[in-house]
């Protein structure tokens, strides 16, 4: 499982992206929407470092 990285393809458009072993993008999530969904839900378990979109984050 690869870590997500923060990219900004255009000014003001930040996204979390994951790459496969060859360096191609496999997943992409908008930062604002990802953060909003995290805040709406109560965490039941912790996600590992760099894996915030794969589990819960305690706030």
Measured as a percent range, the helix fraction is: 10-25%
Strand content: 25-35%
What characteristic shape results from the CA principal axes? flat
Strand order of the largest sheet: 1-2-3
Unreliable residue stretches: none
Give the H and E element order: EEEH
Q: Output the structural class.
A: alpha+beta
Put simply, the count of helices is 1
Taking Cα atoms only, what radius of gyration do you get, to the nearest Å?
12 Å
* Average pLDDT number: 76
How far apart the termini lie comes to 24 Å
The main pleated sheet reads as: 3 strands, antiparallel
**How many beta-strand elements?**
3
The quaternary structure here is: single chain
Region (Disordered): 1-59
Task: Describe this protein's structure.
With 59 residues, the protein is of the alpha+beta class. The protein has a domain at 1-41. It has one helix at 31-40, and strands at 5-10, 13-19, 25-30. A three-stranded antiparallel β-sheet has the order 1-2-3. Strand 2 (13-19) and strand 3 (25-30) form a beta hairpin. The longest helix is centred in the middle third of the chain and has 10 residues, at 31-40. Residues 1-59 are annotated as: Disordered.
What are the salient characteristics of this protein?
single chain; 59 residues; alpha+beta; 3-stranded antiparallel beta sheet; 1 helix; 3 strands; 32% strand
């Amino acid at each position: 499982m690869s870590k997500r990285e923060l990219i900004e393809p255009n000014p003001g458009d930040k996204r979390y992206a994951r790459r496969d072993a060859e360096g191609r993008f496999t997943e992409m999530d908008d930062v604002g929407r990802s953060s909003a969904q995290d805040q709406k839900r109560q965490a039941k378990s912790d996600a590992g470092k760099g894996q915030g979109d794969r589990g819960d984050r305690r706030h």
